[in-house]
Amino acid sequence: MKAGETIAFVGPSGSGKTTMMKLLVGLYRPDSGQILYNGRDFSAMNRAQRKEVRKEIGMLFQGGALFDSQTLEENVRFPLDMFTDLSIKEKLDRVNFCLQRVQLEGKNGLYPTELSGGMKKRAALARAIANNPRYLFCDEPNSGLDPKTAIVIDELIKDITHEYNITTIIVSHDMNSVIEIGDNILFIHKLDAKKMKIYPINSYTIF
To answer: How far apart are CA 48 and CA 66, in angstroms?
Structure first.
């Protein structure tokens, strides 16, 4: 996978798309094989080593996964509190920048329950890029959104990927979205404990 590119995983329900993503971000451990980040074997690392790699990873969950008890500002600041030693002012500056980047400027004090579905996805995207990741993972980024809002999310992901030279990996059922923003598209035929088959839909594959 190359910097500045969006790789899209598609396939039927149950084929292993979400399992693949959870393996890549370290929520699951593979039974065999390797997951390499710039030559670093992520699958063989201990907890402390994996945390260092996770600092480079942003994750946009299917449902947004915002903390309902926290404001938008606190949600976006969460990875900065976890992974950085920035001052309060530096964190706030970064939060404000990310909110502005996803068109939520000035919404710092709102809670997730006060946001529309599209605003929640944009807020979750702001949190995903807060720590300036090298790798951005998006699980069904358009799930539950109307077509117009889905296009907004697609454009944001595409623009952010190119603007910050991020490697973006998405899992999606939305073929319109995949064709629009996927530089390379991989179709998962089957994923189980014994065998995995991945077929490139266009000219580039990583397996």
So the answer is: 25
Domains and their CATH numbers in the chain: 1-56+133-207 (3.40.50.300), 66-132 (no CATH)
* Residue stretches of the chain with pLDDT short of 50: 193, 199-207
Query: What CA–CA distance (Å, rounded) separates 79 from 127?
Result: 7
Q: What is the pLDDT of residue 19?
A: 84
Q: Rg (Cα) of the chain, in Å, rounded?
A: 17
DSSP for 75-138, written as a single string: HHHHHHHHH----HHHHHHHHHHHHHHTT-TT-TT--GGGS-HHHHHHHHHHHHHTT--SEEEE
pLDDT of residue 55: 87
Token pair 């909110």 is found at: 99
CA distance 11 to 172: 8
